[in-house]
Amino acid sequence: MEENKKDLELMDKIVSLCKRRGFVFPSSEIYGGINGFWDYGPYGSRMKRAIENLWWHEMVETRDNVEGLDSTIICHPRVWKASGHLDQFSDMMTDCRKCKSRFRVDQMPDPTKCGNCGSTDLTEPREFNLMMKTFVGPVFDEEHTAWLRAESCQPIFVDFHSVRVATRQKLPFGIAQIGKAFRNEINPRNFTFRSREFTQMEMEFFCEDAQGMEFFEYWKAQRIKYYREKLLFSDDFFRIYEHEKLAHYAKAAVDIEVKFPFGWGELEGIHHRGTWDLTRHSEFSGEDLQYMDHDNGRKIMPTVIETSVGLDRTMLALLCRAYDEDTAATAKEGMEEDVRIVLHLPPLVAPVQAAVLPLSKKLTENAENLYKDLNRHFRSEMDVTGSIGKRYRRQDEIGTPFCITFDFESGADNAVTVRDRDSMTQQRVNISQLRSYLEDKIGI
Ligand code: GAP
């Protein structure tokens, strides 16, 4: 990934804003933090939940042929034997004997040289398994070893039969899950981009092999549409990377990559996994996971198309895309020209969608009624402290798309002024029309 000073400065600014305004900060910070683990504060958890709900709505709630699942993080250890993770889920790592830095070999620009001190005195690369180990029960020995799941999709394959029987779904259909995954990453870095604990949003779509490529193309198109229309990604911000080297069981694989300040990085993978997963779990569990088509009496092992995206990475991508500083714009609002920090977040996932700002403390009671009403339909908040300019600035910094000023006229004309975060234009809107006005602008 190409790095330059300006982009690194931008990354620092984003990290600093996230901490200052309660989006994301290091886990266990008062103890010095723990590398690769992050906590989401009040605005961060709101935004994360909004992204998660949007994904669930688009992938499950609006589709009759996709079912939801909420499985455990710890599964039977043989799940990870069957999936191949215990034997193959590893990265090559090397240590610098001089400065003791540790590296993932595939991420080193020059694998013969330490990226920290330049020494060439490096240990022989060795394999390092990324699975996180724990113990189940009172005895800490081999027999009681279990693993935190390294991807949220494996339980989908394990539960395939139960879900199909319970829902009476016929092929083709999908099963989706949102949940935590854990990887003992050698080198967690780039803020939340590579973490050791993170959330995945995954959907496995089961179909007949003959339809595999058709559904691969279908899901690829659906996911691109989602990024364009819901998360408002522009064409210069994302690209499709086609895998040339495929796993032996896979027929096709693409990644959706986005432009982070530290370079292009994978956001989502869309993979044709063939019959690999169900076949392996059938072999290892002894349960036949084939699909019986009662209409024609045929038994087949379904082919799987997977869409897999990181929730933390989606949020990081949105924050990186949204962060902006402008100076000229503040003059428009009659304020001294200084830097306005603004997050141009998509209104659908902004942590606060509407902020109610009474022009005077005397108007607080009436404004509060409006706020309570709005808060039933939109993520809202009310801010009464400081000048109106300062309050706009606070809302800009957390990406609030609409600020609603309740003024001395509002009681008489039953109208408020709605200020748009991006254009900074203001429009008088009748309170009776406000909900539909905002729904229309937000795209609900
Ligand atoms: N089931 C397929 C699978 O897990 P993956 O490419 O390893 O595939 C899918 O992960 C997505 O999960 C990635 O595209 C990324 O968004 C997210 N992800 C993977 N490793 C991550 C990490 N260490 N930190 C944050 N997100 C991660």
What features would you highlight for this structure?
444 residues, alpha+beta, seven-stranded mixed beta sheet, five-stranded mixed beta sheet, binds glycyl-adenosine-5'-phosphate
* Distinct ligands: glycyl-adenosine-5'-phosphate
How many helix segments? 14
How does the helix and strand content classify structurally?
Answer: alpha+beta
Which bin fits the share of residues in helices? Answer: 25-40%
Shape: globular
Detail the poorly predicted runs. Answer: none
Largest sheet: 7 strands, mixed
If strands are numbered along the chain, what order do they take across the biggest sheet? 3-9-10-16-13-12-11
Distance between the termini: 37 Å
Q: Could you report the average pLDDT, rounded to the nearest whole number?
A: 94
Give a count of the beta strands, DSSP E runs of length 2 or more.
Answer: 23
Rg over CA atoms, rounded to whole Å, is 25 Å
Report the portion of residues in β strands. Answer: 25-35%
Helix-strand blueprint:
Layout: H1 5-20, E1 24-26, E2 38-40, H2 42-61, E3 66-69, H3 78-82, H4 85-88, E4 90-95, E5 102-104, E6 126-129, E7 132-135, E8 145-148, H5 154-158, H6 160-167, E9 173-182, E10 197-207, H7 212-229, E11 238-242, E12 252-260, E13 263-274, H8 276-285, E14 291-293, E15 298-300, E16 303-310, H9 311-322, E17 323-326, H10 328-332, E18 340-343, E19 354-358, H11 364-375, E20 380-382, H12 388-398, E21 402-406, H13 410-413, E22 415-420, E23 426-430, H14 431-442
Parallel strand pairs: 3-9, 19-20, 19-21
Antiparallel strand pairs: 1-2, 4-5, 4-6, 7-8, 9-10, 10-16, 11-12, 12-13, 13-16, 14-15, 17-18, 21-22, 22-23
The protein binds glycyl-adenosine-5'-phosphate (GAP).
